[in-house]
Design goal:
Elements (H helix, E strand, L loop, with lengths): L9 E6 L6 E6 L7 H9 L14
Antiparallel strand pairs: 1-2
């Protein structure tokens, strides 16, 4: 998606189902290729919990 988004590591995609639309945040979390990427990955918190989930409530 190079050039289509503000970040080369993240994009927003959606399923346009008329009754149950879903929005996805897609992040690239791969093995670092440079020292800058390695440092960036070390600073990230990729953990998730039940409280992070959107349930529509």
């Amino acid at each position: 998606m190079r050039g289509w988004t503000n970040s080369d590591r993240m994009m927003i995609a959606c399923c346009n189902d008329g009754t149950r639309p879903v929005i996805f945040r897609i992040e690239r979390i791969d093995i670092s290729e440079t020292e800058d990427e390695r440092a960036w990955l070390e600073r990230q918190d990729f953990s998730n919990s039940a409280e992070d989930a959107y349930t529509g409530a």
